[in-house]
Amino acid sequence: MRLYLASTSPARLATLRAAGIEPVLLSSGVDEEAAVAAAGPLTAPEMVLLLARFKSEAVVGRLVDGQPLDGFILGGDSAFELDGVTYGKPHLPEIARERWLAQRGREGQLHSGHWLIDHRAGTPGGAVGGVSTAAVRFAASITDAEIDAYIATGEPLEVAGAFTIDSLGGAFISEVRGDPHAVVGLSLALVRELLLEFDVTWTDLWNRPL
């Protein structure tokens, strides 16, 4: 059973590979800011689910090596929420630094949206989605120098909330409550549950040496 990942996220790819799945990567090309602006006011969970759906739908009907998609399409999106404010990717160093100064020693919620489309036999069928959320607490002892050094690596500029847990930012996170894979941006447990909606088991997707 083939899984098509409508994402170019290295973290999502690494998570799936570690779990025994080698997906086919497809860039969705979705203009996230325009999509959110057109949708009007959304909560953080609503926003990530909407973008996950748009990303998966954007690759429906594509060809890979001249052949139609035959399997499941998975779209994903993540956002960090602190004090009721939703934060995506900071893009700029000064914005990333401002966010880190605000979240140091505090706790927020990382929301990861997932949308799964049945595209077996080259034909789009049913679709299901869901959101996984985890509470993330940042160490209070993080120094300004550590923040500046982290931002200088460029890693926090293109990730939701300006942090990672599976790479350079992991040392600055003191606690995670909930699904840890939600923080990475792809909840293995939730994707497994979504697959069950189509009577497909998680192990059907295993295609890497164990």
What's the gist of this structure?
With 210 residues, this protein is α+β, with helices and mostly antiparallel strands. The chain is 31% helix and 27% strand.
Could you list some keywords that capture this structure?
210 residues; single chain; Maf protein; seven-stranded mixed sheet; two-stranded antiparallel sheet; alpha+beta; 9 strands
List the helices and strands and how they pair.
Layout: E1 2-5, H1 10-18, E2 24-25, H2 32-39, H3 44-58, E3 63-64, E4 67-68, E5 71-82, E6 85-87, H4 93-103, E7 107-119, E8 127-138, H5 144-152, E9 173-178, H6 180-184, H7 188-196
Parallel strand pairs: 1-2, 1-5
Antiparallel strand pairs: 3-4, 5-6, 5-7, 7-8, 8-9
Helix pairs in contact: 4-5
Q: What's the overall average pLDDT, rounded? A: 95
Structural class call reads: alpha+beta
| CATH architecture tag | Alpha-Beta Complex
**What is the element string, with H for helices and E for strands?**
EHEHHEEEEHEEHEHH
The radius of gyration computed from the alpha-carbon positions, rounded to a whole number of angstroms, is 17 Å
Q: Give the strand tally.
A: 9
Q: Class in CATH?
A: Alpha Beta
